[in-house]
Amino acid sequence: MIPVSPEAAAGGQAVDAGDDVEVLVTVNKGQPDQARTQVVLPRVRVYQVGRSGASYSPLGGADQAASDIKLTSLTLLLTSDADYQAIARARWIGDVDVAVLGTGESN
After folding, report:
1. How many CB atoms lie within 10 A of CB 106?
2. What is the pLDDT of residues 25-74, one digit of tens each?
3. Which residues pair with 52 in a beta bridge?
4. How many Å apart are CA 25 and CA 84, to the nearest integer?
5. Closest among 36, 30, 46, 34 to 90, alpha carbons compared
6. 40, 44, 87, 103: which one has the fewest Cβ atoms less than 10 Å from its Cβ?
7. How many CA atoms does the CB half-sphere of 82 hold within 13 Å?
């Protein structure tokens, strides 16, 4: 599971379980001349989406209005120790962002 904000996850787009996402990390964000963004994982599937303000289930709906529900975390289906280590390292060195990939998008 990685903590995310709505702004960092897909630029505020809806992210749902089953979506394929690209995970990126930006380092030195406070220093624009040294900031850089790199791909951590080019394609990984979202297993679960954590949201605050509601108990969310794809089948059961939510207990509050959609405007009150904020994205808080993503649980990703990682297939190897290397993927897990890449995510862990990214969380320590910079700001993690997630971009939702379309079904036809390639990396």
Report:
1. 7
2. 999 888 888 899 999 999 999 999 888 865 444 555 544 445 556 788 89
3. 70
4. 14
5. 36
6. 103
7. 2
Q: Which of 78, 98, 85 lies closest to 37, judged by CA?
A: 98
Nearest to 99 by CA among 7, 29, 17, 36: 7
Residues 6 or more apart whose Cβ sits within 8 Å of residue 66: none
Intra-chain end-to-end CA distance of the chain, in Å:
23
Quote the percentage of the chain above a pLDDT of 70. 73
Determine whether 39 is exposed, middle or buried from the number of CB atoms within 10 Å of its CB (0-12, 13-18, 19+): middle
What is the token pair recorded at 28? Answer: 């030195």
**What is the pTM for the complete model shown?**
0.75
